[in-house]
Amino acid sequence: MPHAPVIDASTRLLVVAPHPDDESLAAGMLIQRCLAQGGSVDVALLTDGDDNPWPQRWLEKRVIVGAAGRKRWGERRRREVVAALGQLGVNPERLHAMGWHDMQVTTQLRRAHQASISQLRAVIDQVRPTLVVIPDLGDRHPDHGAAHVLSRLALHAAGSQADVLTYMVHGTEASAPQDLIVPDIDAGRQAVKMSAVLEHATQMALSRERMLGIAARPERFDRPPAPPGGDTLRLPWRPGSWARTRLRVLLADGQGARHWTWRSAPLDRDGDDWLLALRPVPGPAFVKLTADLSTPWIYDRYGWVCQDPEPAGLVARPLG
Questions:
Q1: pTM above 0.70, yes or no
Q2: Residues 150, 284: contact at Cβ < 8 Å?
Q3: CATH of domain 12-216
Q4: Do strands 247-253 and 256-261 pair parallel, antiparallel, or not at all (unpaired)?
Q5: pLDDT tens-place string over residues 227-274
Q6: Residue 40 to residue 37: CA distance in whole angstroms
Q7: Rounded to whole angstroms, what are the CA distances from 177 to 55, 59, 148, 182, 314?
Q8: Helix 142-158 to helix 113-127 angle, to the nearest 10 degrees?
Q9: I want to staple 22 with a disulfide (CB 3.0 to 4.6 A). Which of 17, 172, 239, 252 is the partner?
Q10: SS3 labels along 74-87
């Protein structure tokens, strides 16, 4: 079993939540454990979950949801997250809301890179966390993957030495189950966590079974992938010639965000693989593929990477 972080009175926990409910689903038990040991807990909430139209249509009995309606919904979800944190024992003053738009965290990263990192860094500088919990880079929800990238870049910019754990909400962790960290199985804290999740009443309307199913499973955390070790990154994708006419490549690092069409990106071919040239910038670098295609599917088709992919087939590994 991997080594879990020490939780005691000196722990300053910062949970990064892309939407209201992620704080409770991903870390409701960890939050309680930290507070029970005398530590402190802060939550950085990136969006108010304002682009959530189907539950809003259902509960408000309306078809059209405009800008005013999204604002009203976001305010309602903000109240829910305050109530959920109250169940977990977190003071409302410990909630740091960025106020970004739901489903636009990647856009926030791309179009307001430095401003977004500065907002997160301000929270990190204020809290000075010893432990930070962020979404998994491989989470299929685009807001979650982008939240990982922004969090890692902000932590590097702040010079933070905090221990970092990642959580998965939409998808499956890359690490094997036995390599994940499960720091708490206390039944009492699990019951309180369920009460916190139920405070997100808007999400219960159409997704009650799914939400409670996520909340019922043991909280488990992974370690973030290491930053690339060279001046190029081998991409895991091999898009066909037609797809390449639609694809764009997004690079995010400490210098900013660059967005290219596939054909104009600094790519080299190595057999069947593509290599992207990285900039000589300290800290992590992340790459994502996007497509100029309109689709109702909200989850990422390609996602983010920051490491060369594992070689195919059996690979000899050094003994531990």
A1: yes
A2: no
A3: 3.40.50.10320
A4: antiparallel
A5: 888 899 999 999 999 889 999 999 999 999 999 999 999 999 999 999
A6: 9
A7: 33, 38, 21, 10, 19
A8: 60
A9: 17
A10: HHHHHHHHHHHHHH
DSSP 60-73: HT-S---HHHHHHH
Length of the chain: 320
Using CA atoms of 13, 123, 212, 135 in order, give the dihedral in degrees to the nearest 10.
-90
Identity of residue 304: W
Nearby residues of 296 by Cβ (< 8 Å), 6 or more positions away: none
DSSP codes joined into one string, 105-172: HHHHHHHSHHHHHHHHHHHHHHH--SEEEEE-TT-SSHHHHHHHHHHHHHHHHHT---EEEEE-SSS-
> What's the rounded Cα separation, in Å, for the pair 227 and 67?
39
The secondary structure element, H or E, covering residue 27 is helix 22-36
- Amino acid at position 79, single letter: R
